[in-house]
Amino acid sequence: MRKLGNLILFATALLLAACETPESPFSLNPNVLQMKPGDMQTIGLVGTAKDVEWTSSNPDVATVYYGVVTAQAIGKTIITAKSGKQSATCEVFVTGSDGTTLRITPAVVSLKKGETYQFKYGNTYDLEMTWSSSDESIATVNQTGLVTAHKSGNATITLATNVGSVTALVAVEHTWGEYHLVWSDEFEGSALDESNWTPQIGGNGWGNQETQYYTDRPENLRVEDGCLVIEGRKEQYENNEYTSARIYSKGKREFTYGKLEARISLPAGMGTWPAFWTLGNRGNWPACGEIDIMEHTGSVPNRIFGTLHTTKDRSGSRSSRAYTGIENIENNFHVYGCEWTKEEKSGKDVIRFYVDDIVYSEQVEEVIDDDEYWPFNRPNYFIINLALGGTLGGNIDDGIFNNPLLMKVDWVRVYQREEVE
């Protein structure tokens, strides 16, 4: 009886197996896709398949959801549809909107010395690739895109094939010591120190339709009581109706990066336009770059401007910031400064404007190593002047000359810091 039962069970199993429907092979249509990031396309099933599972071999390049493929980034991926033991594939090639076939991400990586980072990349047609670094003393890269940081600075990483290349930036963080004083003029004594400064002479409007004539006469420019004094006067002089003074440190005192400060008392009155600023020592304006650390106009007594001028932004409209956080700006001493730092934020320079240590504006380099956007990576020299009228000074109220119209500078100082290796 036991043998008979076993035979019955075996026969039943054979009968059930014979009744099962064998799996049918199927395919995908299309089996090759050419796409661009953001595109969506549907892959169809040719044949019969149940409970299909869809996968992408590289979801960074393209994802798939029930046969709908969404292109994400440049590269190649394989879309697989699986049903039971059967499967079918579709090759997906994603190129850039402009036809580019290489990708490296992210565009910027910030590392500390000794750290490593694995770049993601895409290669649409699986061409042979070469990785390289623009400065191997800063960062090296192996042939899988693994970067190692060695010392502070910026290095450009290039991924190349025989048909093109793409780049990314590795910014290795700087480590700085404390700021220390490297130069100052305290304006002691009885005369301007001409080892630091040169007076500028003229009345040509200085590109701003200014109305004064700049002189080096003691009536306009002098050192007294521990201050540089620039006096604006209403008087006929060299066919101009007003006189004042302007000094600069070009070729004598020039600096790259640091804290640049001056303690200044500003004059009051409609039509005054005092400024403490810098220019780059190469090229003409605006290619040389201009940092307006402090500009003030008597028409708005409680406002200070900090502004950058570059070739791509001559007017400074993108970077000009006003500070109105203090009262009694005029005829009172305040410290006006900027902190100019190297490769501080993801390899980009930063310039901060402040009054009495209160930061009111921070400007970050837009495009690394593009002088038209950011020429502030070379020496700058100081300019101190009191303009009258002009495009920013506006109309002059002659009543302001009833009392001495004085811009006083207690000191100018530069602080810098050494890098700690």
Taken from the alpha-carbon principal axes, the silhouette is: elongated
Mean pLDDT: 94
* Total of helices: 2
- Euclidean distance between termini CA atoms: 91 Å
* Class by alpha and beta content: mainly beta
Residue share in helix:
under 10%
Q: Tally of extended strands? A: 36
Largest sheet: 10 strands, mixed
Strand content: over 45%
Which segments are poorly predicted (pLDDT under 50) over 5 or more consecutive residues?
1-5, 7-20
CA radius of gyration is: 35 Å
Structure description:
This protein is mainly beta and 421 residues long. The longest helix is centred in the N-terminal third of the chain and has 18 residues, at 2-19. The strands form eight sheets. Strands 19, 21, 22, 23, 24, 27, 32, 33, 34 and 36 form a ten-stranded mixed β-sheet that branches. Strands 20, 25, 26, 28, 29, 30, 31 and 35 form an eight-stranded antiparallel β-sheet that branches. Mean pLDDT is 94; it is low at 1-5 and 7-20. It has helices at 2-19, 390-393, and strands at residues 27-29, 32-35, 40-42, 44-46, 53-56, 62-65, 68-71, 75-83, 86-94, 102-105, 108-111, 116-118, 120-123, 130-133, 139-141, 146-149, 153-161, 164-172, 180-185, 198-199, 212-214, 221-224, 227-237, 240-244, 246-248, 254-255, 258-265, 272-280, 290-295, 304-309, 321-323, 333-345, 348-355, 358-364, 380-388, 405-416.
